[in-house]
Amino acid sequence: MLLYKVRNEGAWREHSDPVTIEWLPCHFGGHRPLFHCPRCGSRTGVLYGGEVFVCRHCTGLSYQSQRESAGGRAQLRAEILRERLGWIPGVLEFEGGKPKGMHWRTYERLTVQHRACAGIALAEWDQWALKLRAAGLDDEADRLL
Questions:
Q1: Residue 125 belongs to what H/E stretch?
Q2: pTM assigned to the model
Q3: CB contact at 8 A, 47 and 54
Q4: What is the model's pLDDT at position 144?
Q5: How would you classify residue 30: left for phi > 0, otherwise alpha for psi between -120 and 50, otherwise beta?
Q6: What is the rounded distance in angstroms from the CA atom of residue 128 to the CA atom of residue 108?
Q7: How confident is the model at residue 6, as a pLDDT?
Q8: Interior/surface letters 98-115, b for 16+ CB within 10 angstroms, e for the rest
Q9: CB of 125 within 8 A of CB of 74?
């Protein structure tokens, strides 16, 4: 039984939720604890609190990558590749050269990946600019590009 207090508008309220813990064996020995969500009953490693302690599915939480568009994920991937290549950050910046000590094959593979990701990100920016221009927000579209 999970006992806790929640403060809501100055007043403390006591709560108790039936939370069970199941110990599962790990492949390389030992055991790992998993909670059973009091709302849906699924096994989870973390319960998120507030008014009630429940799993991330029941609270409606999502990962950052699930909230981003395809262009946003591509831009993030392009920035990671730029950092690995030692280039100046920013998809709109020029490509740099091959880092010292990196194999040419690796450099060419990462450059192709970067160009593909940057192309996806820039295509989404173009779509946003077209939507802004269609809405009569030409100044905003110019700032985007």
A1: helix 104-134
A2: 0.59
A3: yes
A4: 58
A5: left
A6: 30
A7: 81
A8: eeeeeeeeeeeebbebbe
A9: no
